[in-house]
Amino acid sequence: MPELPEMENYRLLLSEKITGRVITGVHINREKSINVSILLFCDKVMNQTVARIERRAKHLLFHLQNGRVLLLHLMLGGWIYFGREEDKPERTIKVQLCFGDHHLYFIGLRLGYLHLYDGDSARQQLSDLGPEPLNGDFTLDMFLKMTAGKRGRLKMKLVDQQFISGIGNCYSDEICFHAKVLPTRDMNDLAQPEITQLYHSIRFILQQAIKHGGYMENPVYKGDSITGGSDALCKVYDREGEKCSRCGAVIIKEIVSSRKVFYCGSCQK
């Protein structure tokens, strides 16, 4: 599932491609992927200019010139492709926005969605999300206050979108590896130096993942050489049975509260 770095990568790349461009066509192949009638969706989206693209947690918000917002959540298996008709992937297209002879394809939105809201309603949909971990106001002092007295497994708190927004299965494990703490630890067992390191690891891992295009391999457009570059940087996620790059021990996989957890039992304490 795309996490903060993948969605930020989409935002950066798509902003270059479609900001300031007019939507010349709309095709809805799965009505359940939108939240209004096809007729209303097309009426409010057609012939509108994309003013800007914003990211909030794992969502993208396409702000249109008329004040409407397209709120995207890809969920499991969803991805985006921008290009000509002849270049599109041989996959099921759920929603398609046309920009002249180029198109933005929303692929695999079986669980995901592209919903239409006005600006205030879009913000309300995201009002229960926790702080953005890369924003300037997400300080160490703030994180220490957030974690004070918190209980529960570290893994589950990191992926809790009401606690911190944007982190999922992949980067929670990579953050814990970088911080040298076990994701199966209880939050209230962590000492302050460990929490401090965890804060710095959150910011470092997410920034590195964005820089290298996230871990999901599907290109955003033809010739895209950025997307998916951070997969090779993952040290523990989906590396079960491989040797730890830091100490040589074998990477372990466990299931915690129905979530896969990958870690090194030797150098993560």
UniProtKB/TrEMBL annotation:
Q: Which GO biological process entries does UniProt record here?
A: base-excision repair
Cofactors demanded by this protein: Zn(2+)
Formamidopyrimidine-DNA glycosylase catalytic domain ranges (all copies): 2-106
Q: What is its EC number?
A: 3.2.2.23, 4.2.99.18
Keywords in alphabetical order: DNA damage, DNA repair, DNA-binding, Glycosidase, Hydrolase, Lyase, Metal-binding, Multifunctional enzyme, Zinc, Zinc-finger
Against Pfam families, the record matches this protein to: Fapy_DNA_glyco (PF01149), H2TH (PF06831), zf-FPG_IleRS (PF06827)
Q: Please give the catalytic activity noted in the UniProt record.
A: Hydrolysis of DNA containing ring-opened 7-methylguanine residues, releasing 2,6-diamino-4-hydroxy-5-(N-methyl)formamidopyrimidine; 2'-deoxyribonucleotide-(2'-deoxyribose 5'-phosphate)-2'-deoxyribonucleotide-DNA = a 3'-end 2'-deoxyribonucleotide-(2,3-dehydro-2,3-deoxyribose 5'-phosphate)-DNA + a 5'-end 5'-phospho-2'-deoxyribonucleoside-DNA + H(+)
What GO molecular functions are on record for this protein? 8-oxo-7,8-dihydroguanine DNA N-glycosylase activity; class I DNA-(apurinic or apyrimidinic site) endonuclease activity; damaged DNA binding; double-stranded DNA binding; zinc ion binding
Which stretches make up the FPG-type domain?
235-269
What domain of life? Bacteria
Q: Per its UniProt record, what PROSITE patterns does this chain match?
A: FPG_CAT (PS51068), ZF_FPG_2 (PS51066)
Homology family: Belongs to the FPG family.
What protein does this entry describe? Formamidopyrimidine-DNA glycosylase
Q: What is the organism field in this record?
A: Peribacillus glennii
